[in-house]
Amino acid sequence: MTDQQNSGETSAGQIEVVPAAPADTARAAATLGAAFAVDPHVVGLLPHGDVTASLTRMWERIVRETFGAGGHAYLAVRAGEQQPLGVALWEAPGSKVSLAGMIPGLLTYLRVFRHRVPDALITELLAHRAHPCAPHWYLKAVGTLPDVRGAGVGSLLIRDRLAAVDRQHVGAYLEASTADLVPYYERFGFRSRGPVPSRGTVDALGMWRPPTA
Description:
Pfam families: Acetyltransf_10. This protein is an alpha+beta fold.
């Protein structure tokens, strides 16, 4: 899956990054659904209709799969507010959601993608094949609510976890949705590995951050 993020960045203000629990799945999915409603890679795989509702349903399933495989979700929250301003999903080394692990969610994916299911499945397969062979943390998704884009929320989420990744001396990987986002992720030490082929939508770009010494 790809990442969605705005390249603008200012101060994130009084916002805290907290680990999510499975009970937070619905509100995390709502934030990701709103964030990815303008993502050309993901939206390009959807049939016409209510994009945000479809994406929220899709992300609820993906968040559950991520937790089920041993992955992690982190929320950027502001005191007194229920809805997370941003969400980051990470798969730890050895906790990747396999294609077989997605089979229980097939009904959800059929409801979301409908006649575009073949394109979505092939795109996901190609994305899996593009992952580095070396052990790594995978930034599966990072997104923020539209009204806080450019406020540094996404950067806060990314930096928070990269500090932990560096302590483990392993690499990190992500897919940028567009070429415009490559310079943004380069600020965090990621470097482009080139396009990740897709079917029926725009290609994402794989980006690798090598382990710290």
